[in-house]
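anyone else get weird line breaks when pasting these?? whatever heres mine. first is seq + tokens for prot A
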Amino acid sequence: MDFLFNINAQFYIAAYLVGGIPFGLLLARFFAGVNVKESGSKSIGATNVLRVVKESNPALAKKLGAATLLLDALKGIAVLLAAMFAGMPESTLWGVAVLAVIGHCFSPYLWFEGGKGIATGMGVLMVMLPLETLVGIVVWAVMAKTLKISSISSLTGVIALLVASFFIHPEMAHAPVVIITIILFYKHIPNIVRLVKGEEKAVV
């Protein structure tokens, strides 16, 4: 158990545990009295919070969706900034970033189920790769405005960010970004299947 006294391990554990906090589930249950794990896509992310709460309270749905998006992004950012303040090396920071995303997608509080990871992923990548993340957000915004399908917009933005990282920072080790991308695509497999079948619904 000596590894628990290692500061790197402490930040890794914190990243996973904080990343796993299901803000969407908590907000929807507390303020709207609904369980997003039992409705819609059964995801704990902002899109499903918006979709499920909208059925009973459209005005509240927008607020809770926005709050979920913000909190899911901030939870990864918070641990990263703490690690930076503690003087952790870049390798540790990348470990924290990846584990925050893993925590959200495979939450220890939800029997290792969780959300799709887009907000948390974009949050940590905004800290680590701000220019690339800005590219991803712009692509996401354009796709969301034109197609209005959350999964396509999100995944296109992620791909744009990954590709941009090879151009803007060709010298860096891209493995952490690739790992995060793979996790996000893995969590979107049901959406990808629905897209192929033409069953994926737009968010209106």
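and prot B, same format (seq, then tokens)
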Amino acid sequence: MGARDVIDVLVVDDHAVVRRGLSVYLESADGIRVVAEAANGREALERLRRLAVQRRLPQVVLMDVLMPEMDGISAIGAVVADFPDVRVVVLTSFGEIERVHAALRAGAAGYLLKDADPDEVAAAIRVAARGEVHLDPAVAGRLTRRLVGPPTGLDALTSRERTVLALVARGLSNRRIADELYISERTARTHVSHVLTKLQLSSRTQAALVAIREGLIPLPIR
């Protein structure tokens, strides 16, 4: 395969082990070369600027969503604005529809979940390099269900209820939630009840786990 056929990739993830594992795999994939790594969106933009000066700008950035300094959604928009020829593929643990929408609106050329088969990651990079969009089958299914059916899970929550869910996950009581949102304790209790009902949960602990899993609040231990 000639040099022009090789797809150069920048890998962006705040976990060093994940970055290294992805880089090692992609280096072994046919026609893909990892030119740099970055730990967050801000670092990714710095890497791209240096590579642009060296005329080694990658065709594709493989990027996580939840990262310190600058998150993936913000970084996607910045990459698309500053480097319009570079395509961004999201690789994350979070498949919440609102997050998918945000990534696609920002200009992402793909959205994969981290339980994807390694070959699918390589395939998504190749698709993005061709100027097309690749979605994880699970994500595509959720988008389809969102279009044809009533919202479920976090998508069924109002903006206020999502805020309440995040506060529940932080361990706040109804009284403290009320104080935080400048509402009555009774209203806070009603919001919590609605959240549990819509998510089909029976306890605040379950709600907290959902909030962490969906990225509404960071993991307590990194």
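btw re prot B: The domain at 3-146 is CATH 3.40.50.2300 (Rossmann fold). Strands lie at 7-12, 32-38, 60-63, 87-92, 110-113, 134-135.
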